[in-house]
């Protein structure tokens, strides 16, 4: 999937995950574009929704696309971190293939540690998604860890674990804070 198409799908998922309709502002009085930045394994992107509770406001997030080991062209999962709600709490959003068993949920574990459960809260044709508050314990684990394992169960398959490298996540989180979004 081309980067711009990926960002549109990701933005749709972010808006759905956090409430509201999706759309990107292309013209008008939208805030100035913010350049994408890459921090080793993680990237920072900013978009401007046209509708919903964040309409006309720049929404920034960091993310990593985890590739399937058997097919490096296939995106097996996405990890996204962004601010959510009026208190601007950080959340970790996990996007999984659309054939994921919702009832099974998902997990994230840092460097083989105790997994954090992630309830799958919805699916759209492109992916299923769940979110987890980025507590100080989870944020600290991400910053000092080397790899996050995302576990889930696709329909008609055994449970899978997809590795998400954490190289660059600390710098990406710092850049996210600098955006003010």
Fold and architecture overview:
The protein has 181 residues and is an alpha+beta fold. The chain has a single domain (3-179), classed as Sandwich (Immunoglobulin-like). Helix content is 20%, strand content 39%. The two termini are 26 Å apart. Residues 1-28 have low confidence and may be disordered.
Radius of gyration over C-alpha positions, nearest whole angstrom:
16 Å
The biggest beta sheet reads: 7 strands, antiparallel
Q: Indicate the CATH class.
A: Mainly Beta
Count of DSSP strands? 11
Helical/strand content category: alpha+beta
Count the domains: 1
As a percent range, the share of strand residues is: 35-45%
Please name the CATH topology: Immunoglobulin-like
Oligomer type: single chain
In the CATH hierarchy, the architecture is Sandwich
* pLDDT averaged residue by residue: 85
Proportion of residues in helical segments: 10-25%
Which labels suit this protein?
3 helices, disordered N terminus, 4-stranded antiparallel sheet, 11 strands, 181 residues, Immunoglobulin-like, single chain
Protein topology:
Elements: H1 3-18, E1 37-39, E2 42-47, E3 59-68, E4 71-84, E5 89-96, E6 106-110, E7 116-118, E8 120-123, E9 128-133, H2 136-144, E10 147-152, E11 160-165, H3 169-179
Antiparallel strand pairs: 1-2, 2-3, 3-4, 4-5, 5-9, 6-7, 6-10, 8-9, 10-11
